[in-house]
Design brief:
Layout: E1 22-27, E2 46-52, E3 54-64, E4 72-83
Antiparallel strand pairs: 1-2, 2-3, 3-4
Length: 86
Amino acid sequence: MTALAGVPFLIQAGKKLPVTAAEVVVELRSPPLDAFGERPRPRNNYVRFRVSPEVVIALGLLAKRPGEALRGEPSSSCSATTQATS
């Protein structure tokens, strides 16, 4: 288990959560260089794996906005969605 030493885990459970789902979200570390220089910094890039009630693999990241200005905007991409089988 030394490979996971110091890795934070967050488990949320309860009857009154806004969504009923089973998912794993891997939030990546902040890059060493702040390319867009934005404060406050948006959420880190992440990969989300949802396994119930539907199977979804999604990627969230800060992407460059169109145009010449070096500005970022949060972007999310769902790469696979299927119905879970029981």
